[in-house]
Structures are given as C-alpha cells and as structure tokens.
Known about the structure:
It is globular and about 45 Å long. It is of the alpha+beta class. It has a single domain, classed as Endonuclease, Chain A (3-Layer(aba) Sandwich). A four-stranded mixed β-sheet has the order 1-2-3-4, with helices on both faces. The chain is built from four helices and four strands, in the order ααβββαβα.
Amino acid sequence: MANYAHSKEVRSYNMSRIRSKDTKPEEIVRKFLFSKGFRYRKNDRRYPGCPDIVLPKYRTIIFINGCFWHCHEGCSDFVIPKSNQDYWVPKLEKNRKRDEKNYAILRNSGWNVLIVWECELKKASRDERLEQLYFQITD
C-alpha cells in the first residue's frame, strides 16, 4: 500500500467518513453467518468491548477489526500516520491494550473470542477466511 501524506482537510474528511459499526467487513461476516444458519446479536453493549457479533448458543464472540484502528501487526494496511505521531502512537497503543484487556475478560468468562481482520476479508482470501471462521465456531 502506498505510504503518502494527506492534507489536513483530506485527512479530516476521510476520518469523518469512518463508521464504528455496520461496516462493510461486518456486513460480509454477518451475511455469511446468517446464510449458514447462525443467529446472533450484534454490537451487544452488555459485554466488554461491545462485540460486533455474539453467538450465545456457541459461547462465541466475534470482533471484526479494522487493521489500522486495532494495530494489525505485520499488515500492510496498518501504517502509522507520518504527521501528528504524538497523537496517533498513544491513541493506537491505547486501542490495542484495551482490546487485549477485553479479550482476556471475555475468555476468562468462558467465551470463545474470535478476531477477523479487515484485510482477511479482501476478495482474494475472503472465502477461505469465512470457511475457517465457520469451523472455529462449530469445533
């Protein structure tokens, strides 16, 4: 992925368009699960981290994480912005630590916590990742 800087106005506009729920990756996963007969709750605030998908019958919680916002290590989609690093580095690190804490709380409560990364849902790898997800839930 190209590593380029945006003007302040362009970056501001881009950031204003980012949604926190009902994102395209979430819709892809939800449609797949529904087509396989799974029924779920979405964005359930009763659980730490407000999981994207909760499958109570399978004691499984799924987070569909954006590679940038959740610091996907080793992913080409995770690039720390060159400008304003005093803001971005602590912000993204705080997100990562919060995620780890929430996952630990859920796992310690007996939940199977699954993470699906945004990059795993690109066309080239989507079908394979969704089939893998199916087996992670049902095993």
